[in-house]
Amino acid sequence: MLTLKRIRVKKLTVNLYNGTNCYNAGSKAIADFLKILSSKGYRILSFRIPIGKSKAAKLYLLIRDVLKGYCTIPLGARVVYVYPDILQYDFLFPLLALKKHRKTAIVCDIDSLRCGSGELSREDFSRIDRFDEIIVHTPMMKEVLVKAGMNPEKLKIIDLFDYLAERPYTGVRRKSNRICYAGNLDKSIFLRRLPLLYETEDNTVGMPSFNLYGIESPNLPRSEHIVYKGKFHPDDLSGLEGSWGLVWDGDTPDTCGGPFGNYLRVNIPHKTCLYLSACMPVIIWKEAALAPLIEKNKLGIAVNSLYEIPERIAAIPEEEYDQMFRNVQEYSAKLRNGEMLGKMLE
């Protein structure tokens, strides 16, 4: 579906729409990008993938609509793309050179780093390098791209993604051992091993307890310390319970490993932005790319292992936690107002 009016605007963003699950946080980031871009005066050029058609018919209709849409882009316009999103279709790349417009990419994910060997693929590099300006997650992601040969001058670091909320959290959080984890619960293999945390202590007083949010998985452990709280709409943060939000991935509580765990070394996990938007201080892996930002701005704590959590929480005075909460409140306002992407577009 083409949603751009035929007017000679100078700021546009291109989006691929295929229908999404409203409880899928993966589509939340792109939806927020589009809202922020629209608020900044960008017109949205949106293409819908036809439903109920053959693969060949879908591709034909998409190519037809894209070509029509590109005819409406004036020379010299600034056009913002989300990578990979619509750019998963190779036929679009020659179109980038047909029009003389300023091309900006917001990197949402780099699949070869996230799901593959952890090495940047030639395909991802060549696709991303076609843009005039590239908004990347962290200094570590920029370093990966520069080492591969990309011009550092066209790379801009966003640090955190915005997280808009129609129903924000309005309460006051107090220090406790209650930890929130929101995300793909079935993919998060380490959750199945959370009971190991309680086997190391004779007395579980002071041990953390976990509130798990997301689509229910039959593989989740259940106990008085591990409670499944259901799923929530990504725009409604009003009911998230916990004093801390956990940023962790991989197979084990000991460290973050495997493709998804190692991806934390370069990316911005969207759940970090969710927690901060919900005014929830963060517990993050010490080797994650965001750990320095979290520690420097006193937005939470960084740990090497989940086994460290009881001692770390116990060592934090209530006054220090209260200050963390106030720091997070300030960041929450920035993320909910779209300030992070906004400053990239200035």
Structure description:
This protein has 346 residues and is α/β, with parallel strands linked by helices. The protein folds into two domains: 11-163 and 338-344, Rossmann fold; 178-336, Rossmann fold (3-Layer(aba) Sandwich). 32% of the residues lie in helices and 17% in strands. The protein contains 13 helices and twelve strands. The protein has helices at 25-39, 55-70, 93-98, 111-114, 122-128, 139-147, 196-199, 258-263, 270-277, 291-296, 309-314, 318-336, 339-344, and strands spanning 11-17, 43-48, 78-83, 102-107, 133-136, 155-157, 178-182, 209-213, 226-230, 244-247, 282-285, 300-303. A six-stranded parallel β-sheet has the order 2-1-3-4-5-6, with helices on both faces. Strand 5, helix 6 (139-147) and strand 6 (155-157) form a beta-alpha-beta unit. It is globular. The two termini are 29 Å apart. The relative contact order is 0.13. The model is unreliable at 1-9 and 18-22 (pLDDT under 50).
